[in-house]
Design goal:
12-stranded mixed sheet, two-stranded parallel sheet
Length: 464
Amino acid sequence: MEYGKMATRTKILAGAVLLCLGSVVATAASATDTFGGGATLPAGAYVGFNFVGATNAVLSSNTSTQFAGQNPSAVDSTSLFGVWAAATSNKISYCQTGSGNGKKIFDKTDGTTALTSVGACAGGLTGFGAPAGVAVDPYFAGSDAPMSSSEYTLFGTATTGKGPVYGQPSQFPAVAGSIAIVYHNADAPQGTLNLSDAQICGVLNHTITTWDQLGVSTTANPHKPIKVVYRSDGSGTSFSLSNHLTAVCGPSGGHHFLADQAFTTVVSQFGTPAGFGWTGANGNGGVITEMNLPAEDGAISYAESANLKAAAAAGSAANIAYATVNSKDPYADFPNSVSVTAVQNFVVSGVNATTGAPAISLVTPLVASSKCLNIVNPTTYANVTSRYPIMAVSYLIVNYKGNGSDVSAVRSLISSAYDATHTGVKTIGNDPAVLPALPVNGVKTGFAFVSPTTAIDPTACVNM
């Protein structure tokens, strides 16, 4: 994978960029409240970090609708969606449910049960916390794990009603983020732990079980046990970590990791988290909260880097440090922009039987001649050694049709990810004013803009 520079983001179809600009005028007179949610990893990039430490830490909104029983955090005006809302006079709501639940809500089914809501933003409301009667159900979903063959198929099933009304999912890579290996160990302050891939593999396949095996030992506690905190929800962060593990770990004892958004599946060939006494937590915020507890001294986990930095800046991660991986830092050694190559009409169809790496397969579009299901093959960014190696590509997923009179708002929302300048967006890339620097890591957020080397065209893929 190449690194993109700011100028490479101009490699987008001119029509998509013009559409984004034109939508400012089109939507100014008739503002749309857009409702979506899903992945926790890109939440800071999309809506800012006001949710950190808030009463309701999973819902951010500037919509005019009152949320019964909810206390949403404000959308930061310097976030990707905040800048879009100001430019178009539209409003946005983002509910953090995790990637897995986000796609279930978008598909309106978990495979067995028809769904209208999942997770903390439910409250008897529709979709991601939207009130009943909104024009589109829902407008969009965010996911760090691209749609699987089963999720794609479920969208088109007659029982959910999605396919006939909304056509098919249109999927677009929108932002990238580094995933930090985080730890809580009073014997290893920030800046002292550099992990190799082999050590990370050993901790998670349960062949490394004490801190002295990682080079951390004291006279008072020479063999401190390693605990592991993992994501218990369907998580694109887990998927992205597993994508790296399957690229670098290799088999151990005849077993290997499996690429999946469920951590229990990722490590299933080595045992179960419950069998190892490991602790599950929901969402990136849940992982950080759990890891910060005094009882978790000795724990290792993984979390989205930008959310970790925001929590530390807010004073809610005082006991947590992060490791460098192969001497690469998740902030300083992660670029402001990453070039990605998308292929169309492919889905994640399973895993390689030998390595556990994600496999993608071509699908027949649910809408004739559609080329709107864009995916970056996860194996192409699983282990890029010239930068920090554990990375997620996060997607925005919308309906191909059925957007009605709100189509301009949805199109311009997607197009905002590919703006040529990203003027005003300070939650992605390098900006010390939004996320104060932590010791050692400089000022980068841990998020990167994506610069597609192939044309991305919301114009053709988001329709009435």
